[in-house]
From TrEMBL:
GO MF assignments: metallodipeptidase activity
GO biological process, one term: proteolysis
Residue runs in coiled coils: none
Matching Pfam families: Peptidase_M19
UniProt protein name: Membrane dipeptidase
PANTHER family named in the record: DIPEPTIDASE (PTHR10443:SF12), MICROSOMAL DIPEPTIDASE (PTHR10443)
Species name: marine sediment metagenome
Length: 100
């Protein structure tokens, strides 16, 4: 299976998105539904990556771009995990209230 994936990857190479393009998408969603509903998840399993963010050591590049675009520290914290933690807490609260 891995050989088939590599064959396809070599036959149809794609350009990597940049950190700036990633943050363009974050901007779009923030403008569409608000910063309280945006989060970043990472998936460093060896497939695809973002130019300038090829592994976890380069994640600060995303944070730097968010700051450069005027996001506050509080909003960046929301994007990097505070939003998902808020949702998880609510899910647990609701689950407990219904006896799940």
């Amino acid at each position: 299976m891995e050989d088939e994936y590599m064959d396809i990857y070599e036959k149809y190479p794609s350009e990597k998105a940049t950190v700036q393009e990633l943050v363009d998408h974050i901007d779009y969603v923030v403008n569409l539904i608000g910063v309280d509903h945006v989060g970043i998840g990472t998936d460093f399993d060896g497939g695809g990556s973002i130019e300038g963010c090829d592994d976890v050591s380069e994640l600060p590049n995303i944070t730097e771009e968010l700051f450069r675009r005027g996001y506050s520290e509080k909003d960046i914290q929301k994007i990097w995990g505070a939003n998902i933690m808020r949702v998880f807490r609510k899910v647990v609260e609701v689950a407990r209230s219904v006896g799940a």
